[in-house]
From TrEMBL:
Protein name: Alpha/beta hydrolase
Keyword Glycoprotein: no
Signal peptide positions on this chain: 1-21
GO MF annotations in UniProt: hydrolase activity
Length: 380
């Protein structure tokens, strides 16, 4: 009996001896700064610099508002890092820079009060505001790249080119404050999905176009150009979306209602949303070359707002992804952008998951996009 007690006592002492250092290591780990590794997933981390105001703007109705961004620094970063700037989607009509990291309202997320998801009907409106790309792009943190999500005025707040002004103002702000946030000002890339993809490619293809630069946020001595762009299923020609939709995915009548009518998001974006107006009217005026039309300036604005018309040989390299079953933005929009980039001699990669809708593109596409942009930003 005594021997058993001795054995138990010795065992407990041995366990205590080895357990004490482990407790000490645990406390130290909590107070030290973890180092980013290939196995460290930082996509759920909180913003390092939250709600940073980069500009004060005025909406078309005269209301003032702040434009903000969230800045996520990779863990363990000790030197200036490259940065990937994310532009949210939502049809230019909804969403903000917080995206998936926005505070959740318990009253709306409680399992008891959450309504079952509606069965998709295939209509374009069922696919708006799918921002699954946000956390995909946020993966760059795992490779030591800073991730920044930026705000811009929605189409209900201001007509184009306000959105271009806002985004270029954000890039200039980041470059002007690069030292403060530990960012390499020479390695800034942009990405976005849906409407955010449109604004990302619009930014990438309009470097140096003064009428799209604006003065939002100041810092006008700094460039708003970027070194690379990732576009996930963004519109590239605002005047042709209805006519380019695959009839097997969406009836033409519905496509016209979605894209050409005065209440379409494109029409609202262009400030051409009154009765008797709409993108369809502008396309008809353009196709007939009615330069004397009182709306000809809106036609030219729509063309300027379409990246496909702004491609030049000095544009940055691009990665384009577009699902084959997208019933909101026709895949032809991305195919035409790809062809324009090739014709201009601009490096680009196009990928399509044939079954993907207007939303999740699948892990093969996601991984390829992240690998591509990571290599661009980390290249010496």
């Amino acid at each position: 009996m005594n021997r058993k007690i001795k054995i138990i006592t010795i065992s407990l002492l041995l366990i205590s001896t080895f357990a004490l250092p482990l407790v000490g290591c645990s406390k130290k780990a909590k107070t030290s700064v973890p180092t980013a590794t290939a196995t460290t997933d930082q996509t759920s981390m909180a913003a390092t610099y939250k709600d940073v105001v980069f500009a004060n703007v005025t909406n078309d109705n005269g209301a003032k508002r702040d434009l903000k961004m969230n800045i996520f620094k990779p863990q363990g970063a000790t030197k200036a890092t490259p940065v990937l700037v994310y532009i949210h989607g939502g049809g230019w009509a909804m969403g903000d820079y917080q995206v998936d990291d926005a505070p959740k309202n318990p009253s709306t997320t409680s399992p008891a009060k959450t309504k079952p998801a509606a069965k998709p009907t295939g209509k374009a409106t069922d696919q708006i505001a799918g921002d699954s790309a946000y956390k995909v792009f946020k993966r760059v943190l795992n490779s030591g790249i800073t991730f920044v999500s930026i705000d811009y005025r929605l189409n209900s707040e201001a007509a184009f080119p306000a959105q271009s002004y806002d985004i270029k103002g954000a890039i200039r702000y980041i470059r002007a404050h690069a030292k403060e946030y530990g960012i390499d000002p020479d390695k800034i890339a942009v990405c976005g999905n849906s409407a955010g993809g449109h604004l990302a490619t619009e930014l990438a293809t309009t470097g140096g176009i003064k009428e799209l630069e604006g003065k939002v946020g100041g810092n006008l001595d700094y460039s708003s150009k970027v070194m690379a762009c990732v576009d996930f299923y963004g519109p590239t020609d605002l005047l042709t979306m209805a006519n380019e939709m695959d009839l097997s995915l969406q009836p033409h009548k519905e496509a016209v209602e979605t894209h050409d009518s005065p209440k379409s998001n494109e029409s609202i974006l262009l400030g051409f949303s009154k009765e008797g107006q709409g993108v369809g009217v502008l396309r008809d005026i353009r196709d007939k070359n009615e330069t004397n039309s009182p709306y000809w300036d809106k036609v030219k604005l729509a063309e300027l707002a379409s990246p496909i018309n702004n491609v030049t040989s000095d544009d940055p390299p691009m990665f384009i992804a577009h699902g084959g079953h997208d019933s909101l933005v026709p895949i032809q929009q991305s195919l035409r952008l790809k062809d324009a980039l090739i014709k201009a001699g601009v490096e680009n990669i196009f990928m399509s998951n044939s079954k993907a809708p207007h939303g999740s593109q699948g892990e093969d596409v996601n991984n390829a996009a992240i690998t591509w942009i990571t290599n661009k930003l980390l290249a010496k």
